[in-house]
What we know:
Elements: H1 4-15, H2 30-35, H3 44-54, H4 56-68, H5 74-83, H6 88-109, H7 118-126, H8 133-155, H9 160-181, H10 194-203
Helix pairs in contact: 3-4, 3-9, 4-7, 4-8, 6-7, 8-9
Amino acid sequence: MCTADAARLRLWQMLSPAFPVGGFAWSQGLEWAMDAGLVTRATLPQWLADWLDHGAGWTDAVLVALSLRPGADHRALDDLARAACLSRQRLAETVEQGTAFAANVAALTGTAQPPAVLPVAFGRACAAMPLPASEIIAAFGQSQAASLISAAVRFLPLGPVEGQGMLADLQPRITARAKVAQDASEADLASTAWGAEMAAMRHETMTTRIFRS
Length: 213
């Protein structure tokens, strides 16, 4: 990875929906919240903002930042990230996607990539890229936000263009949070998005569902 341009191409390859990690199958509890009427076409932008500022969007950004740093102990970060998951489905979501991500990167690069939760596996894979940490963190955040919006497009009466508009509106916040996360420590790894966490727990008991979380 000799140039920034080459690194950006690899970054966007790894974050593409075509990169086989199975992200389309998960919703981080959003499906239950939509089914219960708590998240609608009108309230989805606020849900996403809270997810980014106070929930998994923030904690994953911190984990990516910590995993990008020289000398990062990725095994310890993986253990910490698993312990921070408050629901069974949330744990399965990040572990299964991270395991697939690591296997794909190993196949592409010929380097050992032990299984890890998604943000740790991603940060580890990007650690040598000659790119600002905030850019890498923001790219990951946008990818995750786009996945949630895609879930809403499939569940709500929400058109794909309107969904893209929501993502565009969220981009300044994604950039701002990435800049904060790049200097974060393990002490900043906290979530207060209780509604999202409870939605993820309640999703486990849904009789009929589209998504796995």
